[in-house]
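At this stage, I put together a protein sequence along with its fold in token form, as given directly below:
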Amino acid sequence: MKLVTVKMPETYIEGLDELVKMGRYSSRSEAIRVAVRELLKRELWGIQPAHHELPHRTSEPRKVTV
């Protein structure tokens, strides 16, 4: 994989951190890769996911302690 640096609003970063904290993704990078893949599927490749379909996870969920 190649490294890409992007600027984004603080609220996006906070949202990514919350998804990681919830255990939905293992890292910000994983969440961003999934988002970009879904964007490319929809916008470039013309693949529409089913409304009930969730993005594929590439790693095991983390346990979150409350």
Q: What stands out?
A: Residues 42 and 50 are 11 Å apart (CA to CA). The mean pLDDT is 84. Residues 10-43 form one domain.
